[in-house]
Design goal:
By secondary structure, this protein is mainly β. 4% of the residues lie in helices and 31% in strands. The protein contains 2 helices and 11 strands. Strands 3, 4, 6, 7, 8, 9 and 11 form a 7-stranded antiparallel sheet that branches. The radius of gyration is 16 Å and the shape is globular. 42% of the residues are buried.
Length: 233
């Protein structure tokens, strides 16, 4: 990982005091607060309690870091869309995480404290959820680690029916300079909060969801507290 890219703009101790809210990704549609259109419903996830307080500091030299804003609290999806990932099997680029168990990613525990997150090693890593059936997917929410105000780099989320992801569709990509090799992403980097990151998906069909990252603004490691996938058959 490029250490200079991670740390040159602000010291880790200052990063921990950042309190920017997670806003809507630039590439998704809908505000999440409008009255649902016909045949759609508003989905409002359960959010964990905040685990840190702080004063915003200058964001430094991260070119695609989004500006502070009101947290995204909901999204719209077709009626019948439901949480389909809870308890589903999880695999990873690392079969033996540094901390925690891969099952934490879909166990429903989002508070982010000790014993509720998985820690993977440095550089490019991924976790993958097997939904066990093909679904039309309309929303994905990820909480990396919200106990401190970190920024996770090169976050890419893909959907596929191939467990090896030989073919896939990318639904989120904030890798602005193609460090991961999936192309330059148009989505924003963001500071982690208890609201996670809501990613709207336009009904992509898939059985598997894979999430990549490449370290964070405090260290080179990769973390996941919880991932929720919403869809319908």
């Amino acid at each position: 990982m490029n250490i200079q890219r991670t740390l040159k703009w602000i010291a880790p101790a200052a990063v921990a005091a950042v309190a920017f809210s997670a806003c809507k990704p630039a590439s998704t549609s809908g505000s999440g607060d409008d009255t649902p259109k016909e045949g759609y419903t508003t989905i409002t996830p359960d959010f964990p309690k905040p685990m840190f307080e702080g004063t915003p500091v200058p964001p430094g030299d991260i070119p695609n870091l989004e500006k502070p804003g009101t947290p995204r609290m909901s999204f719209q999806a077709p009626e019948g869309t439901e949480l389909i990932s809870k308890g589903k099997p999880v695999t990873s680029s690392e079969s033996a995480p540094i901390i925690g168990e891969l099952e934490y990613v879909t166990d429903g525990e989002k508070d982010g404290g000790d014993g509720s997150y998985v820690e993977l090693g440095p550089q490019k890593q991924w976790v993958q959820i097997d939904l066990e059936e093909e679904y039309d997917i309309f929303g994905i929410i990820v909480w990396h680690f919200h106990k401190s105000a970190n920024i996770y780099f090169d976050v890419v989320v893909q959907v596929s029916n191939d467990p090896e992801f030989g073919t896939s569709e990318t639904v989120y990509n904030n890798d602005h300079d193609n460090q991961m090799g999936f192309g330059e992403g148009a989505d924003n980097a963001y500071v982690e909060t208890n609201h996670g990151r809501i990613i709207e998906v336009d009904g992509k069909k898939g059985r598997y969801v894979r999430l990549y990252s490449r370290g964070n603004s405090a260290n080179e490691l990769n973390h996941y507290v919880e991932v929720e996938v919403y869809g319908k058959k």
